[in-house]
Design brief:
about 300 residues; alpha/beta; Carbamate kinase; eight-stranded mixed β-sheet; four-stranded mixed β-sheet; 17 strands; about 40% helix; about 25% strand; binds adenosine-5'-diphosphate; binds phosphoric acid mono(formamide)ester; AceGlu_kinase-like_sf; Carb_kinase; Asp/Glu/Uridylate_kinase
């Protein structure tokens, strides 16, 4: 019998936002991922990168100007660096956890490019927050560099960049080959490196793709049974942040789209998770999406926590 497949999409809670946090978080996250592999799942891992890609872009571009011979790097190159920086820790963390359990499997990070539509409306309105939270003064300096910033109520200011929808995964065949060989792949990190086709050449776009949308596309492409989005909350709520907030344990496709219409989900955080889940599930495929925390990951598979979205 074919093994069941799962895409595990790691948010900031499972990953941290800088290197020391990442080292600590990856230790815990690798244990949960290894539990799934030990239980017989074929696992593809994907992850966030917004704080990291913002940090790398600032570092590359400030130092590029400060020192002779150092050059700056465009956002697409910084996305590639973030995949390497995060994938390196994750693949070693998962490898070590598997070895401790006597499981001999390879874990590989695939630098993944994601085709985007050059005419995507998202290029006209930068909306994806990246990097650190800034003071009003730092935000002004950022704008003087030609970057866009947005105020996040109660938290400060953050850079925002364009976030086009992912259209197709350039390296999908190698990702599928690793899954078919029953090994572990880390792919489409940070939503994938956004690229546009120019003849035989792929040209990087100055954008950051929403990792939840990339995770949904990856899950569809590898024909996963489950898309598990691991985030900072145990479940999705109705009336989030209001006095009548209520956890949603299960929702079907109709309920999910009604709640989307009602504006129940914040556009920069929960909405892409729900839309990616709905798109992945489709009709007549017996798939499910789970939105939960790392801590509830295993329980949610047994319907004992998290929010489960199914047809
Ligand atoms: N309806 C909702 N139910 C639960 N959380 C919500 C809802 N709407 C918005 N959120 C927010 O979404 C956040 C998780 O998304 P995000 O910060 O993008 O995390 P990640 O890095 O894991 O992708 C939660 O911490 C919560 O603040
Ligand atoms: N690329 C991306 O969506 O990253 P975050 O999850 O960190 O926002």
């Amino acid at each position: 019998m074919a093994k069941k497949r799962i895409v595990m999409a790691l948010g900031h809670n499972a990953l941290g936002t800088n290197l020391p946090e990442q080292k600590e978080a990856v230790g815990k996250t690798a244990k949960v991922i290894a539990d799934f592999i030990e239980a017989g799942w074929q696992v593809a891992v994907t992850h966030s990168n917004a704080p990291q890609v913002g940090m790398i872009h600032t570092a590359m571009n400030e130092f590029g100007k400060l020192h002779d011979g150092y050059t700056s790097a465009p956002m697409s190159v910084c996305s590639a660096m973030s995949q390497g920086y995060i994938g390196y820790d994750l693949q070693n963390g998962i490898r070590a956890e598997l070895l401790k359990r006597g499981i001999y499997k390879s874990v590989a990070t695939i630098l993944t490019q994601m085709m985007v539509n050059p005419y995507d409306e998202a290029f006209y309105t930068p909306m994806k927050p990246i990097g650190r939270f800034m003071s009003a003064e730092d935000a002004k300096l950022e704008e003087e560099k030609g970057n866009y910033v947005e105020e996040v109520p109660g938290k400060g200011f953050r850079r925002v960049v364009a976030s086009p929808k992912p259209v197709s995964i350039v390296e999908i065949d190698i990702i599928k080959a690793i899954m078919d060989a029953d090994q572990i792949v880390i792919a489409c990190g940070g939503g994938g490196i956004p690229v546009m086709e120019q003849g035989y050449v792929l040209k990087g776009a100055s954008a950051v793709i929403e990792k939840d949308r990339a995770a949904g596309l990856l899950a569809k492409e590898i024909d996963a049974d489950v898309l598990m989005i691991l985030t900072s909350v145990d479940h999705v709520d109705l009336n989030f942040g209001k006095a009548n907030e209520t956890p949603i344990s299960q929702m079907n496709l109709k309920e999910a789209s009604d709640y989307i219409q009602d504006g129940q989900f914040e556009s920069s955080s929960m909405l892409p998770k729900i839309e990616a889940s709905v798109d992945f599930i489709g009709h007549g495929r017996n798939r499910k999406a789970i939105i939960t925390s790392l801590e509830m990951a295993k329980a949610s598979l047994e319907d004992k926590g998290g929010t489960i979205i199914a047809e």
